[in-house]
Amino acid sequence: LIGLEAEARTIRTYEQELVPGLLQTAEYARAVIRASRPTDTTEEIDRRVEVRMERQEILTRADPPPPRVNVVLSEGALRRPVGGYDVMRQQLEYLIRPRDRANVTTQVLPFDAGVHPSMVGPFMMITFPDADDLGVVNVENATGTLFLEEPGELRVYEELWNTLQASALSADDSQAFVKSTSFRYRIKRE
Asked: Average pLDDT in the 162-173 region?
């Protein structure tokens, strides 16, 4: 996945439960990794966090140009206090900042949007500079990762993505939503 992200022209990702790795703070990443890998040592977790932070360098690189990243986050990913209230507040504040970069857009899919075809799980769609390369869809699960490359599979996920984006709040409304949610974590802390 790290190699595919490094070569990507576009990355589109839908997440139900978590902020995607490319937009995580170190402390949020640490909490996620610790929860998913409870038998890892502190050193192993630290190394995984370091790798996750290094992955994010593609977002600000100069050459080749950074990929265009579009994220749709379920409201649940914003409401679950991963790492506690302070860590989550800092994560949400950080999430608002990447939108200032021209290559990152975040949208929130509110609970009010109701039922949608991507309720089966998160996914990431990656395209590459070569126009003949149709791209790949990455689907993670508890035991590994699936990389889907068949044209029919890619079409299904393209349709899912279009539905998600149409159902999600606009980028500006999403910013306001994330800011409001972040404020709630500040109040809970106090």
From this structure: 95
